[in-house]
Write a structure and sequence with these properties.
The chain is built from 5 helices and no strands. The model has no long low-confidence stretch (mean pLDDT 72). The protein has 2 domains: 31 residues; 39 residues. The radius of gyration is 22 Å and the shape is elongated. 80% of the residues lie in helices and 0% in strands. With 95 residues, the chain is mainly α.
Length: 95
Amino acid sequence: MTASLLLAPLGGLLSAALGLATEAPWWMACALGFGGILILRAEALVNARNEARRGLHENRLLGEVSRKQALDYLREIRQSQQPVRGAGADPEETA
């Protein structure tokens, strides 16, 4: 889900929250602002969490199997995640 899909519905809620925040204590205004930032950056936060988890799994893998087996496995996984080259692509340019 992208942040752009959330902007329209959250725009009204955010403006209403800002209206309430003008009469609320300063900490409430800060909490609402921080919550709004978290909502808008949710996709980036999830991606960062997934990258961190991937790193933990790779470190555990390197500790449990031989170096050659781990490198072969990681190479295979990363090659499968790369986009497929077009039919007209020159293999020497990408290497």
